[in-house]
Amino acid sequence: MKYEWKKADKELYLPKNKPVLVTVPAFNFFMMEGKGDPSSESFSEQVGLLYSLAYSVKMMPKKGITPEGYYEFSVFPLEGIWDLVEEAKVKETLDKDDFKYTIMIRQPDFVTERLAQDVLAGVKEKKPHPFLDRVRFGQLEEGLCLQMLHIGPYDEEFKSFSLMEDYCRKHNFRRKTKIHREIYLSDPRRTQPDKLKTVLRFKVENSLSSD
């Protein structure tokens, strides 16, 4: 049976457009760190490389390679962890060139460190690119988080974050860090800005028990 993240992990990837608590377990990712404006050509190249790796894993059996534990799956969506470079945190205005990020695509459980390195080596040989040396494979676990679906332009995400911050105040939760996570359910190249769907998420803790 094919693993469909939209069905198997619905609560993690398809929340409603209102804040909701969720516990996020550890998952494996191909990821790449960088900084700068996400509308740049460089950023697009990095995204393309991550998808090349993800589809290389998916298509392995068609190339005569079936890893131990392999199962059919839908490629997971692109995700991003967003922060600001240190010097930008004291500025009054936001400059997208000051963004600091880790973009990533989750991998199925059967992908081990060794398999990931084999996939990386194969992509480097077939389609070499200097950015591939910045890709790493690793595990991330978020734990207790607050998330919601944002519908609309990326530049209007502050409206949804305001709702999430308000939820925290009303329900005795505290945001643990200004760093946040985004999961991209829409392709911005094919979707009107007002139709874009993005999951917004940040880590929280109970403000009463943590005092």
Which features would summarize this protein structure in a list?
single chain; 211 residues; nine-stranded antiparallel beta sheet; globular; 9 strands
Characterize the structure shown.
The chain is globular. It has one domain: Multidrug-efflux Transporter 1 Regulator Bmrr, Chain A, CATH 3.20.80. It contains five helices and nine strands, in the order H-H-E-E-H-E-E-H-E-E-H-E-E-E. The model has no long low-confidence stretch (mean pLDDT 95). It has helices at 5-8, 10-13, 41-58, 113-126, 157-170, and strands at 20-24, 27-35, 78-84, 99-107, 135-140, 143-151, 173-175, 180-184, 197-206. Strands 1, 2, 3, 4, 5, 6, 7, 8 and 9 form a nine-stranded antiparallel sheet that branches. It has 211 residues and is an alpha+beta fold. Helices cover 26% and strands 30% of the residues. InterPro entries: GyrI-like (IPR029442), GyrI-like_CCH_Lin2189-like (IPR008319), Reg_factor_effector_dom_sf (IPR011256). It comes from Desulfosporosinus orientis (strain ATCC 19365 / DSM 765 / NCIMB 8382 / VKM B-1628 / Singapore I) (Desulfotomaculum orientis). Residues 19-202 form the GyrI-like small molecule binding domain.
